[in-house]
Amino acid sequence: MTVRTILARKGTDVVTIDPAAAVGAAAKLLSERGIGAAVVTGTEGRTIGIVSERDIVKAIATHGAAVLDTPVSEIMTRKVVTCGQQDTIGELMQQMTEGKFRHVPVVEQDRLVGIVSIGDVVKSRLEQMEQESNALRDYIRTA
Asked: Which residues form the CBS domain (predicted)?
C-alpha cells in the first residue's frame, strides 16, 4: 500500500500558514481545524517548514506566553521530511518512528499535494491487516 492510497481516501487538502503569521494565529488555526500541524509555505507555495502543536507548546514552555505574538518562522521546524505518493506505508512508518514526527507533507515535483499523519498511516495499516485476516479466513473455510 502506498501514500497515494491514503490520499485517495482522505483527500489532498493541506492546511498551510504564512511564515509571518503569529504563533497565536497558528494555534488558533490548528484548534479550529482539529489538526496537529500546518505546513509553512513561502513564495510560490514552496514548503519551508512545518509548525505543530508540539512546536507551539515547546515555544511557550521556553519563552512564555509572549511567544504567541512572534512569527511562526521563529518556532517552526525547518528541516521538513517529505514523502512522495509512491512511497510505501512501511517506509513512511519507519521514517516517522525513527524521526519522532507525526506529520509528513507529500510533495511531487516541488509541489505540495497532500499531508499524511501517523493516524492516517495506522488506520491504513489496520485496514490492510483486516483484509489479510479476512482473506486467510476465506482460504481456511474453502480449504
From this structure: 8-67, 76-132
Q: Compute the distance between CA of residue 46 and CA of residue 104 in angstroms, rounded to an integer.
A: 15
Number of domains, the chain:
1
CATH of the domain at 131: 3.10.580.10
Helical pair 118-142 and 89-99, crossing angle rounded to 10 deg: 140
The per-residue pLDDT for 138 is 84
Give me the torsion for CA of 15, 109, 84, 14, rounded to 10°: 10
Query: Which residues span the domain enclosing 113?
Result: 3-142
Report the predicted TM-score, pTM, of the whole model to 2 decimal places: 0.85
Give the number of C-alpha atoms closer than 13 A to the C-alpha of residue 27, restricted to the C-beta side: 17
How far apart CA 102 and CA 35 sit, in angstroms, is 11
**Exposure string (b/e) for 13-49, b if CB count within 10 Å is 16 or more?**
ebebbeeebebebbbebbeeeebebbbbbeeeeebeb
Contact (Cβ atoms closer than 8 angstroms) between residue 12 and residue 107:
no
